Amino acid sequence: MAVLSRLLRARTTISYTIRTFSSSYSTSPPPSSPENDVIKTPTDGRNVQWVFLGCPGVGKGTYASRLSKLLGVPHIATGDLVRDELNSKGPLSEQLSEIVNQGKLVSDHLIINLLSKRLEAGDAKGESGFILDGFPRTIRQAEILEGVTNIDLVINLKLREEALLAKCLGRRTCSQCGGNYNVACIDIKADNEKPAMYMPPLLPPSHCASKLITRSDDTEEVVKERLRIYNEKSRPVEEFYRKRGKLLEFDLPGGIPESWTKLLQLLNLDDHEDKRSAAA
Ligand code: ADP
Questions:
Q1: Residues framing ligand 1 (Cβ under 6 A)
Q2: Which of 1, 33, 100, 263 has the CB geometry, 3.0–4.6 Å to 123, for a possible disulfide?
Q3: What is residue 3's predicted lDDT score, i.e. its pLDDT?
Q4: DSSP states of 189-235 as a string?
Q5: Where does the chain show beta strands of DSSP type E?
Q6: Rg (CA), the chain
Q7: Atom 6 (ligand 1) nearest CA
Q8: How close is the Cα of 43 to the center of ligand 1, in Å?
Q9: pLDDT of residue 18
Q10: 86, pLDDT greater than 50
Q11: Ligand 1 center to residue 81 CA distance, Å?
């Protein structure tokens, strides 16, 4: 991963200097879906290198973190890296706070620097493989990543639009233990086109209940802007990976227990011996 982080840094510097992208995007192979046996084991025996895509509020963090425990690879969420940098009160934090609280994306250059630093730190601890959550979020980021390493699989989580806003507004974190909860109860009735959907709240235990905080960018106005930006800048990333035969679509069927079971089946991981502890 040290090589990967160095390459990532080098790529972003070069790309900003000569601004040559997009050729690989237009010469991609014909669309196909990932084969089930490819999903389970990368051919060269290394740990998985997976990416989670999906709108704000869809649950990328929840499922990426469970899979990372199951597969023994780090879960690297660029949103967390941004928030850590913001909370560090370092030279970038004021600038970052303004961007994040408007629902905008931070620059490709900055996000790649944060990701490179994280990969270097992981390498020093002997980490290998990864599940990326929230990266890449632009075509430029996807091209840079594709140029420096082989991503095995991209899981595209999908949830009905009407549930996304409610799920973002319902997110809560315990300021003491860092546990993530959701107080929203999603109960959508069936109509002619779509089945009913029920996602119960994920309520905190009593010792966390008085310590819950809400992310500063989880307000209605900012979430709507993040959804708009997702459609404009990140939706094309789905097509980028679809064309390369790496995109696995997953429509969340309901709450976490039901969705986790179905996701494991889709990934051929339903017999994995550690699945119980990962889901806990
Ligand atoms: P979301 O709930 O919208 O998926 P995240 O926690 O992933 O939120 O990210 C929070 C914020 O961090 C984003 O709104 C954006 O400002 C910034 N961010 C995270 N990842 C990236 C990225 N890959 N590129 C640019 N900005 C990013």
A1: 56, 78-79, 82, 99-100, 103-106, 111, 134-135, 137, 141, 217, 226
A2: 1
A3: 64
A4: PP-SSS--EEE--BPPPHHHHTTEE--TT-SHHHHHHHHHHIIIIIH
A5: 49-53, 75-77, 130-133, 153-158, 171-174, 180-182, 186-188, 197-199, 212-213, 247-251
A6: 19
A7: 79
A8: 31
A9: 28
A10: yes
A11: 9
Write the CB contacts of 175 (distance below 8 Å, at least 6 apart in sequence): 211, 212, 213
Digit-coded pLDDT (tens) for 212-229 = 999 999 999 999 999 999
Cβ atoms within 10 Å, residue 252:
23
186: CB partners within 8 A, 6+ apart: 163, 166, 167, 197, 198, 199
**pLDDT score of 91:** 84
Q: From atom 11 of ligand 1, which residue's Cα is the shortest distance away?
A: 79
Amino acid at 60: K
Tell how far the Cα of 117 is from the centroid of ligand 1, in angstroms: 17
Q: Which atom of ligand 1 is nearest to the CA of 223?
A: 3
Q: What's the pLDDT score for residue 193?
A: 80
- The β-bridge relationship of strands 171-174 and 153-158 is unpaired
